[in-house]
Amino acid sequence: MEWTPDPRELADLELLLNGAFEPLTGFLGHDDLHAVHERGTLADGTPWPAPVTLHIGADVEPGDEVTLLDPEGLPLAVLTVTAHEPDGLTAGPLKALSTPEHGPFARLRRTPAQVSEELGGRPALAVTMRGPLDDLGEVVATAKELDATILLLPLAYGEAGPAVVRAALRAKEQLPPGTLVVPVPLAPRAEPELDLELREHVATAYGATEHLAGPDPVHIPGPPHRRGLVVFFTGLSGSGKSTIARGLRDALLELGSRTVTYLDGDVVRHLLSKGLTFSKQDRDLNIRRIGFVAAEAARHGGLAICAPIAPYAATREEVREMVESVGADFLLVHVATPLAECERRDRKGLYAKARAGLIPEFTGISDPYEEPDDADLTIDTTHISIEAAVSRVLDTLRSGGWVR
């Protein structure tokens, strides 16, 4: 089978394949993971600072081979499964198939072996960076003391990755000739101590004699009215979510203070997701596509409005994470009109067909709707007008500072 890891897993995969995570030869299983958490070692006692894991949300068994793909579908490696836990945690050794090409600044990437060859045995001062360097004087002085080549390792992960690489390239212009810049896709770890240990391990793998950790940047978010926002409506068919979403779009366009992108579930089905069925797998894919487009609009400060049914909580959470990963905000609106009222309206006759067995896997009838417990706003349109519902959403946007 084929599987595309999430961005953090892809970053770890690249470092597993290029040797930066030596002695690891694959993703960690339950025993190694437990040992890392408890003792900072692998199960066999080998020191290792932080989890490096892969979760596969499909049925695989020990002995199966899984081809791991990049976001564009290029095969990167084959994983031979040695263990698969109920939560999806999957362990096993890896065999490289190709060099990763996804992501920015691919031309600057080198493996630890290539960097060691370029250093030619000279000592190296490695500086890992997650933001601009405050004090180049310290770097120059330390390199001079060690008689070492300076190796800048911008930790290019996520939305901030390109900016970190650009900061390294600017710093190189002010550093001694021969300074090297090599982007490393090391995802940050939640605990600063573990993150630093992993940075030191990677720096050593790239040939560092000495390691300096650059300061982490201080992120000051802009005001809400300048940040990207996704307003994500969810609810049963006939609940009124599309009508409210259209009303919100029109109200925002009249205000003229935000760039608005509107993604209605039915329209997306005819265009972006044409050909998908209503199976759970295809429904999830449809929502992910909507989430991706919405996140791209919000990435650049736009306001995206989405109105799919989105019946599954896990997929809604994926969209939230997708949006927040690009630095935008996410507002979940549950249009909680009861099934009986939705069925009474039934303008398209869909519920009647579903009751008659003519539409399989119909949400609320033959397929579940998982009501959100994390909604930022809940609206029941049974006894209020659409105009009132739109006003409630608009008031929420104003009180949150997203609209002025």
TrEMBL record:
Its EC number is 2.7.1.25. Pfam families: APS_kinase, PUA_2. SUPFAM superfamilies: P-loop containing nucleoside triphosphate hydrolases, PUA domain-like. Keywords: ATP-binding, Kinase, Nucleotide-binding, Phosphoprotein, Transferase. Coiled coil: none annotated. Residues 227-380 form the APS kinase domain. One of its GO terms (cellular component) is cytoplasm. Pathway: Sulfur metabolism; hydrogen sulfide biosynthesis; sulfite from sulfate: step 2/3. It catalyses: adenosine 5'-phosphosulfate + ATP = 3'-phosphoadenylyl sulfate + ADP + H(+). ATP binds at residues 235-242. GO terms for molecular function: adenylylsulfate kinase activity; ATP binding; sulfate adenylyltransferase (ATP) activity. CDD domains: APSK. Residues 6-83 form the ATP-sulfurylase PUA-like domain. InterPro entries: APS (IPR002891), APS_kinase_dom (IPR059117), ATP-Sase_PUA-like_dom (IPR025980), P-loop_NTPase (IPR027417), PUA-like_sf (IPR015947), Sulf_AdTrans/APS_kinase (IPR050512). One of its GO terms (biological process) is sulfate assimilation via adenylyl sulfate reduction. Catalyzes the synthesis of activated sulfate. Belongs to the APS kinase family. This is Adenylyl-sulfate kinase. It comes from [Actinomadura] parvosata subsp. kistnae. The lineage of its organism: Bacteria, Bacillati, Actinomycetota, Actinomycetes, Streptosporangiales.
